[in-house]
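Run Probable membrane transporter protein through structure prediction, thanks.
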Amino acid sequence: MQNLFLFISTVLAYFIKAITGFGNTLVMGSLFSFMVPNRLTTPIDLIFSIPTNIYIVWRERENVSLKVVVPLSLMLLAGIIPGTLLLKVGNDRLLKSILGIVVVGMALEMLTRKQVQDTNKKTNPVFLTAIGITSGILAGLYGIGALLVAYISRYSDNKGQFRGNICCIFLVDNVFRFFLYLFTGILNKEIFITTLILSPAVIIGMIVGVKVDSGMKEDTVKKVVIALLIISGTILFVKSLLNY
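Sure, done. The structure for Probable membrane transporter protein is below.
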């Protein structure tokens, strides 16, 4: 039953990834945490994220802006190292509690989000740096660039532009964390075996997601993702508190 649950969760996570360009880590991290430790979930999702982000970046290559990708990628990388160290030494129950709060907060931000009309509006560099580094810490812990997603979505003119830029930044993060996880010993034989077993679920989720995306309204997808994140994040947080 556990393997079936993990397989279905992976399909759902990458179904969402194919449609929105992100969300796989939020969904996978929330659902997997009911069954396995976060130290397994994060590196497994990392391995899956590399090829899926490559695919989306190539698909949306005309929408990628290096002026957006380069500075945010550098700031993201600056926060990944402390986040990775917390992942290696942190208490798993505490990590799950924090993850629950992050997931719900991300969902509420998506619910109240309003796109910035003036795409040339300048942003406070201190604020932007804080977003990038904090996102890096969250990425090191959970693979989640939640604040980064919120920022880029506000300054994107369309879905393709958002997908291209966010996935390109995530790809830089993925490659860096892959070698960092190897160096710190987070990636091991158990993770690679589990990744191999769940690989078909990623393929199924991506194929179905791409097909559904062409005919589904963006508002509908947004509502489904928000509902799923709020429910899973709340349950995860409450469950972690009860286990103390």
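The chain has one domain: 2-242.
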